[in-house]
Amino acid sequence: MKSLTQTGAGAPLLDTHIHLDRYSLSDQEAIVADIRHSEVQSIISVSMDLASCKRNLELSRLYGTMVRAAFGYHPEQPVPSSAETKALLDWMEEHADDMIAVGEVGLPYYAKLEAESEGRSWDNRPYEYLLEQFILFAKKHHKPVILHAVYEDAETACRLLEKYGVTRAHFHWFKGSRDTLLRMAGNGYYISFTPDILYEDEIREIARLYPDHLVMTETDGPWPFEGPFAGQMTHPRMTSAVAAAWAELQGVSVLAARERLYENAVRLYGL
């Protein structure tokens, strides 16, 4: 039986969202060595904060076009101070030519949910202001923006993107309503699917609905997955299984699916 992480359908694969810097050094080296001999052409390593940005820059310089760096601040953590935000944005200005995109940025849906469940007060406005600054940065430097924005937070992200006329947007591992999907698709925003497309009904339904010219593959590694991937280290090769699952849902061949998913990512990121 063919492994779910085995490539070989002939078309290139791209992991458009992974946190390579969050793996151990030995796992980083093993992953890159492995994909050199696979059909995974490149990965986009997104950042958590300034230290993460610096590490991803190092990785992109070390591995060339195999690892593309995106710089940003993950929203599922305390909002940075004004001084920290300025330091990050100043550093990003200095290294704008080294980044393929602004990311990972967005809104803290899960942190907000946790606070509400524990009866703690929550103010989303500082996060929205921070996201607005990142969107403005993306517009200034003509970069795509990689978003962590799900359910009702996606509506807020859409509003900010529309406000500034930013259309090169990538909502990674998206979850949300049909109305939000229609709004995003109408604006030409991209989404990407992780390995949970093999077993999560909510994700599979989104995969059936979203336009096929606006979808891509990702892993969000090192985040672990369940189903057939339980107990495995998340690896860019898993994009092969993601593409195959999407092909099945669309009723097309695996080769045609992989070609479309690859072309979409190349179009968005100018690869």
From TrEMBL:
GO terms for molecular function: hydrolase activity, acting on ester bonds; metal ion binding. Keywords: Hydrolase, Metal-binding. Belongs to the metallo-dependent hydrolases superfamily. TatD-type hydrolase family. PANTHER family: HYDROLASE OF PHP SUPERFAMILY-RELATED PROTEIN (PTHR46317), HYDROLASE, TATD FAMILY (PTHR46317:SF1). A divalent metal cation 1 binds at residues 17, 19, 104, 220. InterPro entries: Metal_Hydrolase (IPR032466), TatD-like (IPR001130). CDD domains: TatD_DNAse. It comes from Paenibacillus vortex V453. A divalent metal cation 2 binds at residues 148, 172. This is TatD-related deoxyribonuclease. Gene3D superfamilies: Metal-dependent hydrolases (3.20.20.140). It holds the Pfam family TatD_DNase.
